[in-house]
TrEMBL record:
InterPro entries: MeTrfase_NTM1, SAM-dependent_MTases_sf. It comes from the Eukaryota. The gene is ORF12154. It comes from Arion vulgaris. This is Alpha N-terminal protein methyltransferase 1. It catalyses: N-terminal L-seryl-L-prolyl-L-lysyl-[protein] + 3 S-adenosyl-L-methionine = N-terminal N,N,N-trimethyl-L-seryl-L-prolyl-L-lysyl-[protein] + 3 S-adenosyl-L-homocysteine + 3 H(+); N-terminal L-alanyl-L-prolyl-L-lysyl-[protein] + 3 S-adenosyl-L-methionine = N-terminal N,N,N-trimethyl-L-alanyl-L-prolyl-L-lysyl-[protein] + 3 S-adenosyl-L-homocysteine + 3 H(+); N-terminal L-prolyl-L-prolyl-L-lysyl-[protein] + 2 S-adenosyl-L-methionine = N-terminal N,N-dimethyl-L-prolyl-L-prolyl-L-lysyl-[protein] + 2 S-adenosyl-L-homocysteine + 2 H(+). GO terms for biological process: methylation. GO terms for molecular function: N-terminal protein N-methyltransferase activity.
Length: 237
């Protein structure tokens, strides 16, 4: 499994938040996701049954970072990166934050998001249709930037650039959360079926540090099937 989660609407934007970048790696990934159904099972590569475990693990990781639990994060505005149809937005972010923005490169996922999210979709302010390699978030805007099962689609230099832009997009006290598959050891591997990399924790950490980010805490997701890659969560600022 690589990237579990992934509207002709006035709040869907292709505008100033996008910079030009053409690359076969990204075209191949886009073609892969264009064939995936806009459902939970599609987002999770056939593993829809792990979604509750995933969300509960994310809540447990995020909770101590919130101001209400002694942390510094004010739960006002969050960004869901590689949001797909909004599984994380609906199940994790909207129950905690006042408003959420989403960024997703696949148009048919963007078009399906508000219907999937349902009655709370009015609190989704923007759905940006863009790949993360091209996305430029507004500065000092977000209290949490959530990146899950999507960063494997970025080349190292684009990942570092994305992290650096996210760092500038944080409000005071804000954090970036990365939740990704990891390798136990060795150098990153490439899966040409969906055009994505799997990196070790060390490789991910190097990219974070090169972007000027500091790792606040790291935690392994519990209770996933042993057949899956180890999944780790990182909080950064």
């Amino acid at each position: 499994i690589r990237r579990f989660d992934k509207m002709a609407d006035p709040h869907v934007s292709n505008g100033d938040h996008v910079i030009a970048n053409e690359d076969k790696l990204y075209a191949d990934a886009q073609n892969y996701w264009a064939k995936v159904s806009p459902t939970i099972d599609g987002m999770l590569g056939g593993f829809a049954n792990i979604s509750p475990t995933d969300i509960n693990g994310s809540k447990s990781f995020l909770r101590p970072l919130l101001k209400s639990s002694g942390g510094k994060v004010v739960p006002k505005h969050a960004l869901d990166c590689g949001s797909g149809i909004g599984r994380i937005t609906k199940r994790l972010l909207l129950p905690i934050f006042e408003t959420v923005d989403m960024v997703e490169q696949d148009r048919h996922f963007c078009d399906s998001a508000r219907e999937f999210i349902g009655s709370e979709s009015n609190r989704v302010i923007n759905i940006f249709c863009s790949g993360l390699q091209n996305f430029i978030p507004s500065k000092k805007t977000y209290d949490v930037i959530w990146c899950q099962w999507v960063l494997g689609h970025l080349e190292d230099e684009d990942l570092i650039g994305f992290f650096a832009r996210c760092r500038q997009a944080l409000c005071p006290g804000g954090v970036i959360v990365v939740k990704e598959n990891t390798l136990a050891e060795g150098k990153k591997t490439f899966d040409d079926s969906d055009s994505s990399y799997t990196r070790s924790k060390e490789e991910l950490t190097v990219c974070m540090c090169k972007a000027g980010l500091k790792v606040v805490c790291v935690q392994k997701q519990k209770d996933f099937p042993k057949s899956l890659y180890p999944v780790y969560m990182f909080a950064l600022h």
